[in-house]
Amino acid sequence: MNKKQEQMAGACYTVIAGKKASATGHVIVGHNEDDGGRCIFRYGMVPAADWPEGTTLPAEDSWSVFAPAKQDIPQVAHTYGYFWGEAVDNEEGKYLGMSGADAFVNEKGVCLVSNNGGQTTKPTISGGSEGVFYVLRRAVMERAATPLEGVMVAAGLIRDYGYKACRDYTIADKDEAWVLEVAQGHSFVARKVADDEVVTIPNFFTVRGVDFAGGKELAPGIMGNGNWIWSKNLVQDAIDKGVYKPQNIQDTLYKDFDFAWCYQSHEENSGWNASYNNLRMKHGISIVRGEKWLGDNSLVTANHPESGFPFAVKPGIISDNKEYQGKFTLAHCRKILRSHFEGTEDDPVEAREKLPGRNPHESNIRRICTQTTGEAIMVEFAETTALTTVWLAPGRPCQLPFFPMHPLSTGQVPEGLRTIKDGAEAMAHHCQSHPGISAWQEHNPWFKMRDYENRMDLLYCSELAEANRWLAKTDSEYAQKNTLAVKQAGVLSGTEQKKFLLQWDNASFEKIYGAVEARCQNLPEAVLVMRKKTFAKKDGKDNLLVEFTLPRGKTPDIKSLLFGLGMTNTQKYSKTEPFSWEKPLKVEKKENAWEATFAADLLITNHPAVEPGQMEYYLSGNDTDGQPFCGMVVLTILP
Predict the structure, then answer these.
(1) Which CATH number fits domain 527-638: 2.60.40.10, 3.40.50.300, 3.40.190.10, 2.120.10.30?
(2) Within 10 Å of residue 385's Cβ, how many Cβ atoms?
């Protein structure tokens, strides 16, 4: 992500449960990936590979130019294979692979996800390098057989090249998880998650006091003591920048050192104490604890790392099942990732009133599941690495179910999601332009599921109850089915296990996706007819004339009408935000329909996410009885 995208998204979220806190007996990792604009996600596998001596990895050379202009990161002789969830987003009129968004699980059972960490204080990168970004996550996946190895791979790159941004990395396997927090430059700290803890991470640094006791130099410039790893000059850099002054100069363990306070910018909405972070942190902890959490970062002061949000909490979950008493389950993980703060003072009715469908996603309140949530992933580790379940919701998890798959056994993702056909080739070109990638694909399940999401947002208040019943039923059904499938696969070996799980993954995807399609087809739809459906991107003279009729012959509330590109914000919340839907220039009543006129220059010509090809547009609004409606039409955009 570049700076603009980081600011627009500002909403990734991760939850980690240690193996003793988890109901599965293994680590659980859940993550919502949030990215601004019309972001496209693709899925596939990157195979293990052997590399000739002298091979290098591409490292981006600036925030706004993502082409691999600098290739100065040496590749290792052998790299592991891995599951890859790729995000591609619009930047200055081009679709480019993003640098802080992709999710991975490698063949050794190590997963990596990350969150934007806000902004840092006084960033510096030395040694002539402009810093690494995407190459860090790729190198960790390709080289790490354990989470600890992953942290050390990342630490070495940060030390040698510097890092471009503030970021919170989660690197985990079945037995342990590490949270690595990186300030822009060469400063970082990594903390091992205790086995009985649950960690929640929004978009600020969560590591506070650092235990420096017993620290040894694990590698040049990298210190550690078993549960902590940090850059050797971490404290001195903070002192030199004037952001830390030890209260006791005799205290060589720096017990009053507060990493987050020192290295996080305190500017308004920079991440530190931003309201959208506090809300998401508070509600995540509340679900983990099973009780309302009242703390935040507002009263934190310098040299007091014990104040503010905790790095981790112990689960306080009450369950009717004694086996799960006090344990964090996948159901709790889903609940967190789907949270809009329903039923609390942080979900005020007025925040939704003016939004299409009165949905919770596009208000100025940044929820855990929000408008920019492009996918959610849960990694359910198993004792046998190959039997790890990757649960993927390829969109907002409050609207789509989690699809179970077992890519570490099958070497594939379900066929319907397999949009990266050649993983090695796609990875080689990730940082380059992807022309045409955002064009509407009628027969691509990922685009069809985004269509369902678009419609559900626009019809949210009228369709929510039934949608929630369906999600709950699907969750329960496939949790049981997956447990049985993994048990059956566990007695098989090699080719037989792979064959069994590949068939099961494909069949499960097709059944769940079929249910999504059926639900989408049964949603009430306004009928749209356009006199002209082909437009030139460079010519905005022709306005869009949309003729429409509402379900049940209802009359539209003219003031509520909006027309816009799918997968983009209906509202414009800032002067710099390039995406929004438009109100009609005029509306006329026809004999048996209504006709609305919209400005093509705003919706096509000057819209940065619109590229040549087919693009899906939606009409939304309320009828005069206050009920929402929507309809969709596909337009052909010429160069």
Answers:
(1) 2.60.40.10
(2) 17
